[in-house]
């Protein structure tokens, strides 16, 4: 892992944590649906919803990283951070 170069503001952290708690709630809901033997299409609908929420969370983190970590970096450091982000994004889209 790289060294910490960006510290999220309290507002950013709070917003990200709220999103994660909602996603965790969705996953817990899916688990409960399985316990209740709910129909597969119902369960899958909730899986799709959780997946979209997680995708939205990732996009928010990517956006913040681009604007807070890469944009303001020195040229060489910015290139390194961009390469790191591209490596992660390659795995993200697999």
Task: Give the topology.
Layout lengths: L9 H26 L4 H31 L4 H18 L2
Helix pairs in contact: 1-2, 2-3
Considering the chains and any ligands shown, give keywords for the structure:
Methane Monooxygenase Hydroxylase, Chain G, domain 1, 3 helices, single chain, mainly alpha, 94 residues
Task: Sum this structure up briefly.
By secondary structure, this protein is mostly helical. It has one domain: Metal-sensitive repressor, helix protomer (Methane Monooxygenase Hydroxylase, Chain G, domain 1), CATH 1.20.58. Helix content is 80%, strand content 0%.
Give an overview in words:
The chain has 94 residues and is an all-alpha fold. The protein has a single domain, classed as Metal-sensitive repressor, helix protomer (Methane Monooxygenase Hydroxylase, Chain G, domain 1). Helix content is 80%, strand content 0%. The chain contains three helices and no strands. The chain has helices at residues 10-35, 40-70, 75-92. α1 (10-35) packs antiparallel against α2 (40-70). The two termini are 21 Å apart.
């Amino acid at each position: 892992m790289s060294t910490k170069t960006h510290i999220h503001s309290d507002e950013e952290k709070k917003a990200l944590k709220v999103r994660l708690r909602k996603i965790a709630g969705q996953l817990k809901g899916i688990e409960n649906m399985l316990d209740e033997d709910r129909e597969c299409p119902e369960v899958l609908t909730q899986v799709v919803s959780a997946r979209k929420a997680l995708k939205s969370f990732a996009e928010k983190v990517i956006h913040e990283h681009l604007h807070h970590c890469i944009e303001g970096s020195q040229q060489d450091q910015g290139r390194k951070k961009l390469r790191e982000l591209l490596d992660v994004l390659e795995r993200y889209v697999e």
